[in-house]
Structure formats: structure tokens, C-alpha cells
Design brief:
The protein is of the alpha+beta class and about 120 residues long. The chain contains 3 helices and 6 strands; from the N terminus they run βααβββαββ. α2 packs parallel to α3. It starts with 10 loop residues before the first strand and ends in a 16-residue tail after the last strand.
Length: about 120
């Protein structure tokens, strides 16, 4: 198993590969993002992880950027490449931002309203 040195990482992209996102080309989005990172020589600066469902199926294909906690919707392979370029330059894909984080998640209003999560059961 590989262990990556993440000392110079500035951005971690979590790419949803859950069922709804896979139906909307999540595999191709993942490959496009990773290819763009390699093409730009940005492997030290942007790390990627495939995830399972992130619970925003109506926003598929979802990509989440950390550490700022920005959730993007409707990412295509071309938009995935653009997302990499924007994050490298310190910019964002504002027009596709669903949530951002500032002590709590803040909805942008560009997506469907989600259901409230059920309260945790008492142990």
C-alpha cells in the first residue's frame, strides 16, 4: 500500500464515485481531474480521493474541495479539468458551488434543498 507525502498539498479533492455520480460519468471525471493534475505537474499540490456516495445525488457528479470545504455540483470531465486549474490559481468554480464552509456549511442556493438528517440515537 502506498503512503503519499502530503506536506506540500494545498487542496484535497474528494470525487464522488457513488451510484448516481457513476451514472453521470464519475469515472471519467476522476480520470480527467487526475490527468489534468499530472499534465500541470501539480501532483504535490492537489491530492485526490475517490469516495462512495456523499449524499448529494441530485447534484451529481459531486466533487468536494478541502481544506475550504467547498462542494461542487454537476461536474463533467471538462469542468473537472477547469476545477483543477482554478484551484491551482487560488480561484474557484463559483458558478457550481453548492456549499462552502465557514464554521458551518452555507448553501449557495444553486441546488435542491436536502432532507434534514435524523438525530443521532441515544446510546
Amino acid at each position: 500500500m502506498t503512503t503519499w507525502n502530503l506536506n506540500e498539498t494545498r487542496c484535497h479533492l474528494l470525487i464522488c464515485n457513488g451510484g448516481s455520480c457513476m451514472k453521470l460519468n464519475a469515472e471519467e471525471v476522476t480520470e480527467a481531474i487526475r490527468d489534468e493534475i499530472t499534465t500541470l505537474g501539480a501532483d504535490k499540490f492537489i491530492h485526490t480521493t475517490r469516495t462512495r456516495c456523499n449524499g448529494r445525488c441530485a447534484d451529481a457528479c459531486v466533487v468536494i474541495a478541502y481544506p475550504e470545504g467547498t462542494w461542487y455540483k454537476s461536474i463533467t470531465p471538462d469542468l473537472g479539468r477547469e476545477l483543477v486549474r482554478r484551484h491551482l490559481s487560488g480561484d474557484r468554480l463559483e458558478e457550481l458551488k453548492v456549499y462552502s464552509f465557514d464554521s458551518k456549511f452555507i448553501a449557495s442556493g444553486l441546488s435542491v434543498k436536502g432532507k434534514d438528517k435524523a438525530p443521532a440515537a441515544d446510546n
